[in-house]
Amino acid sequence: MALPDRGTFAVRGGVTYEVASAAADAVTLRVPGDPGPLPDQLEGGVRRDGDRWARVRKSSLERYFTRHVTVLWQGEEFGLGRTTGDRAEIHGSSPTVADRLGLEGDQYNGFRATVPVEELTVVDVREKEIDV
Questions:
Q1: Mean pLDDT, rounded, for 58-69
Q2: Rounded Cα distance, 84 and 95, in Å
């Protein structure tokens, strides 16, 4: 099962990019592959991990939003973190649930675990627009 990505995103030229960072008037986009420079990009490059990035003005974005994904695992609801291959990070806040299911963390920073994607069911996907 493919899980929806969670995080902050920007749409530019009809393409949705993950936002790596944001400043007052610009965002840094993670750019998959090697499409060459984006139109009107302020700067760009390659990160140490090999991913490409491009900084663009917020005014050039068609859409700027966050997406939160809630999943069900072992009968409990969790926030979805990063997904890598067939594994996904989940986040919870209940010490009782964390103890019962073996999640790591604490009551101040939350609890987390990395679990097989196939064991997750999407419960809710919420997107919230960010003003530019």
A1: 96
A2: 26
Quick: pLDDT tens for 97-111: 999 999 999 999 999
CA atoms within 13 A on the CB side of 56: 27
Are 111 and 94 within 8 A, CB to CB? yes
Burial of 10 (0-12, 13-18, 19+ CB in 10 A): buried
- Kindly give the residue spans of alpha helices, DSSP state H, lying in 10-131: 95-101
Rounded to two decimals, the pTM is: 0.84
Kindly report the length of the chain: 132
What are φ and ψ of residue 63, in 5° steps?
-155, 145
Give the residue with greater pLDDT, 2 vs 24: 24
